[in-house]
Specification:
Layout (H helix, E strand, L loop, with lengths): L2 H21 L5 H4 L17 E7 L3 H11 L4 E8 L6 H14 L23 H4 L21 H11 L4 E5 L4 H9 L10 E4 L14 H5 L1 H8 L5 E4 L1 H4 L6 H9 L3 H19 L9 H10 L4 E10 L10 E4 L10 H10 L2 E2 L13 E3 L6 E7 L1 H13 L2
Parallel strand pairs: 1-2, 1-3, 3-4, 4-5, 5-10
Antiparallel strand pairs: 6-7, 6-10, 8-9
The protein binds beta-D-ribofuranose (BDR) and calcium ion.
Length: 392
């Protein structure tokens, strides 16, 4: 059996068994529970850099996110794991290698990830990121090679080397992470947090319901959200407020360092590509905001939800649903609110005539698994992003 086929088989078997466990309710509340540390408590400091792995599909905004991360001394980047997403792996992998070369960080291992989602055909976003994934900005072929381990195995072994220490920053479809969790049933307990660009509580960008990263591989996303790993979700609710403007590009151009020059080149092409495609908005820096959220969570406002992923909906596959006892305009007395937080069930769709008389209870009671970013200080974010890319 060739290795690609072996991978594909593993993925299918994995999804079947994981989905069955979820349907049967065998993921216990304990598995879903997490330490409810607010995101701010995870904030890294430069005196003790935080170990991270960045899972990515570069991608214009991924490229910015990688450059920002590599210019942030608070981070010890243990590895970068490209996955197919914005463009196929044949492009996301060399694009990631190009970024480490531009940043002078070829010491960071890059491990090639999945070429396809767990069970679906790959959908790409070349219409946003250009055919080469970098808005059409050209860079030389990278000389650096990826490490020999495939990304899921790399994630597994690296997390096991530093159990409880490595935060995963995920800014692409979640295929690699779901596969790593499948390789090692104990791995979820060794990952303190996933900081994710993905999802949205208020509408999508590829369908009315789904955000791109979740849409591409909803089965993988569901596995990740149900893994019990605490998640920080930086979704479209906030990333849509991060348009990169011509003024930002001018600042990048005026700094004389290879990172800001490369970022200016990508940004310039991306803006041009956007205008040619008829978009009236500026390219969003979705993924850099996830990195910034890890570096400085106080740039955003947060609210805890139980988040799950729709995988079956004909119109809604890839939607992230946030359950909260205080969602929407529900108002309760303090006492009723406390009771709701302790006893609220997570309810599925209304009962059909063919089945039971009551709505299915998907979870016995509400347990938050995700800190969701609700608001962002966009000016503060751009100060951080452009400031770091242009620094000497
Ligand atoms: C996400 O999808 C990709 O196109 C971007 O790189 C980002 O990760 C935004 O929906
Ligand atoms: Ca991305």
């Amino acid at each position: 059996m060739d290795s690609d086929r072996k991978f594909a088989l593993t993925r299918r078997q994995f999804v079947t068994s994981s989905a069955a466990a979820v349907v049967a309710g065998s993921l216990s509340p304990a598995a879903l529970a997490h330490d409810q540390t607010p995101a701010a408590a995870d904030r890294p400091t430069s005196s003790s850099p935080s170990r991270v792995i960045i899972d990515t599909d570069p991608g214009v905004d991924d490229a910015f996110a990688l450059l920002l991360a590599m210019r942030s001394t608070e981070l010890k980047i243990e590895g970068i794991t490209p996955v197919a997403g914005n463009v196929p792996l044949e492009l996301t992998l060399p694009n990631a290698l190009r970024m480490v070369e531009i940043a002078g960080r070829t010491d960071i291992p890059v491990a090639a990830g999945a070429k396809t989602p767990l069970t679906r055909r790959l959908v790409t976003a070349a219409y946003v990121h250009g055919e080469n994934g970098l808005g059409g900005a050209e860079f030389p072929e990278p000389k650096t090679k990826p490490v020999s381990e495939p990304a899921p195995e790399f994630i597994r072994t690296t997390v096991r080397k530093h159990p409880g220490e490595i935060t995963l920053i995920t800014i692409g479809p979640l295929t690699n992470v779901a596969m790593a969790l499948d390789l090692d049933p104990d791995l979820h307990g060794m990952i303190p947090r996933i900081v994710m660009m993905g999802g949205s509580l208020a509408g999508g960008n590829i369908t009315p319901a789904a955000e791109f990263n979740i849409y591409v591989d909803p089965e993988a996303a569901r596995i990740v959200f149900q893994s019990g790993i605490p998640i920080t979700m930086v979704g479209l609710d906030v990333t849509r407020k991060t348009g990169l403007t011509d003024a930002h590009v001018r600042r990048l151009e005026s700094a004389q360092n290879p990172v800001s020059q490369a970022a200016a080149n990508i940004a310039h092409h991306a803006i041009q590509h956007y205008r040619e495609a008829g978009f009236l908005v500026d390219p969003n820096m979705h993924d850099s905001l996830a990195v910034a959220a890890f570096l400085n969570p106080s740039l955003l406002k947060w609210k805890e939800y139980y988040v799950d992923v729709e995988t079956a909906g004909e119109l809604t596959a890839g939607e992230t649903l946030g359950y909260s006892p205080t969602a929407g305009d529900l108002r309760r007395s303090a006492e009723a609110e406390k009771k709701a937080a302790q006893s609220m069930t997570i309810r599925g769709s209304a009962p059909t005539l063919a089945t039971t008389k009551t709505s299915p209870v998907l979870r016995d009671h509400f347990v938050p698994n995700t800190n969701v970013a609700m608001e962002v200080d966009s000016a503060g974010f751009f100060e951080l992003l452009i400031g770091r890319l242009t620094a000497k």
